[in-house]
């Protein structure tokens, strides 16, 4: 191996210490169910197991007096723009240059049959009485996982595209119908606001590949647009709680209704007003419960609730109960609306 990747002060290929130590590793590597190989102090391969030979596409020629050159096949970074790695940039070369273990480095192995394998490469030192005598490396084949990830991203992108088109179509139909029926502009604004809130929540889930999403992110996304460009008017804090898709979409609509009402009639309708949203996980009997408290302060005096609940109030109460088996208490305190929501933790799988 050239000087650019040589190691300082190691046991060496011919050292009895080195050869004895490396020999003790061979049987163990042969029993491993993962691709593994041994390098001597100069970085040359002195042994590889069957799994490694299968992954490389052939067994490197290994003899005691003429170890195999690294790498047995060409190696690339996973970035398509990168070319073959130079000897000093391979995982073993990196280890030889730095003396530091290599952990989960993603590379591409080019096989002798023309195929390619995407692998996670690891290299760890082997020492004897404090002296570095070689290294052990292993590969984890993640080709199928990367292929599945790519397919999943493609499907999610297609799903997102179709949902956006569907929402745009619904918005167009609603706009035409509302104008034709002579309903007030406020009705159209309310409907479009709900569609936008739903679309925004869907975008967040899509960006996160429909993985659980943080409750704080949902609150900020739904309430922020109603704060008039002043993020300080929303004070949100609580335990780390991640929500599944159903809970995220439902709570996005609930927070949108509360925020829209606050912007029209409550604390967010005046410059001095603000909203506090706090949440925690509490034990209520044998059922862990997520308690969320919405509280408005600094707004105009709250009027008594209307005799007949509007759509927004019904959505907050009934939507939470129907979708998440939760309960909602609305307190029309003159100093500011307070909404307390209790949701079983089991209804928010995240």
Brief rundown of the structure:
By secondary structure, this protein is of the alpha+beta class. The protein has helices at about 15-30, 50-55, 90-100, 145-180, 185-205, 215-225, 245-265, 310-325; strands at about 35-40, 45-50, 75, 100-110, 115-130, 130-140, 215, 235-240, 240-245, 275-285, 285-295, 325-335, 335-345. InterPro entries: HATPase_C_sf, PAC, PAS, PAS-assoc_C, PAS-like_dom_sf, PAS_4, Sig_transdc_His_kinase_HWE.
Largest sheet: 6 strands, antiparallel
Q: Classify the secondary structure makeup into a structural class.
A: alpha+beta
Low-confidence stretches: 1-14, 61-68
Quaternary class: single chain
Number of domains: 2
Going by CATH, the architecture of the largest domain would be 2-Layer Sandwich
Question: What is the number of beta strands?
Answer: 13
Let me know the CATH homologous superfamily of the largest domain: Histidine kinase-like ATPase, C-terminal domain
Kindly report the CATH topology of the largest domain: Heat Shock Protein 90
Top-tier CATH class of the largest domain:
Alpha Beta
Q: What are the secondary-structure elements, in order, as H or E?
A: HEEHEHEEEHHEHEEHEEHEE
* Mean pLDDT rating: 82
Number of helices: 8
* Strand proportion: 25-35%
Rg value: 31 Å
Strand order, largest beta sheet: 2-1-6-5-4-3
**Overall 3D form:** elongated
Helix content: 25-40%
Distance between the termini: 50 Å
């Amino acid at each position: 191996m050239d000087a650019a990747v040589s190691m300082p002060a190691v046991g060496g290929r011919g050292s009895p210490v080195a050869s004895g130590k490396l020999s003790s590793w061979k049987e163990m590597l042969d029993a491993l169910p993962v691709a593994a190989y041994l390098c001597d102090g100069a970085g040359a391969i002195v042994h590889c197991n069957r799994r490694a030979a299968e992954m490389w596409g052939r067994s490197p020629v290994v003899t005691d007096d003429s170890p195999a050159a690294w790498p047995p096949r060409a190696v690339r970074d996973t970035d398509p723009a990168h070319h073959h790695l130079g000897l000093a940039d391979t995982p073993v070369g990196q280890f030889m240059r730095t003396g530091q273990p290599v952990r989960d480095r993603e590379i591409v192995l080019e096989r002798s049959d023309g195929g390619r394998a995407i692998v996670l490469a690891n290299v760890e030192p082997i020492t004897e009485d404090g002296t570095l005598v070689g290294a052990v490396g292993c590969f984890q084949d993640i080709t199928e996982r990367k292929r599945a990830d790519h397919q999943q991203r493609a499907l999610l992108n297609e799903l997102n595209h179709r949902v956006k088109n569907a929402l745009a179509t619904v918005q167009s139909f609603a706009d035409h119908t509302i104008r034709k029926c002579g309903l007030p502009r406020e009705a159209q604004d309310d409907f479009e606001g709900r569609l936008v809130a739903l679309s925004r929540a869907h975008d967040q889930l899509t960006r996160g590949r429909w993985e659980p999403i943080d409750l704080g992110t949902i609150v900020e996304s739904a309430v922020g647009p109603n704060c008039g460009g002043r993020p300080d008017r929303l004070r949100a804090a609580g335990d780390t709680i991640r929500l599944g898709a159903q809970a995220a979409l439902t709570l996005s609509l609930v927070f949108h209704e509360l925020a829209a009402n606050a912007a029209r009639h409550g604390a967010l309708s005046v410059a001095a007003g603000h909203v506090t949203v706090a949440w925690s996980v509490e034990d209520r009997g044998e059922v862990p419960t997520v308690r969320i408290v919405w509280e408005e302060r600094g707004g105009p005096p709250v009027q008594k609730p209307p005799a007949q609940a509007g759509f927004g109030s019904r959505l907050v109460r009934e939507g939470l109960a129907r979708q998440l088996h939760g309960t909602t208490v609305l307190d029309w305190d003159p100093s500011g609306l307070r909404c307390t929501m209790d949701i079983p933790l089991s209804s928010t799988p995240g």
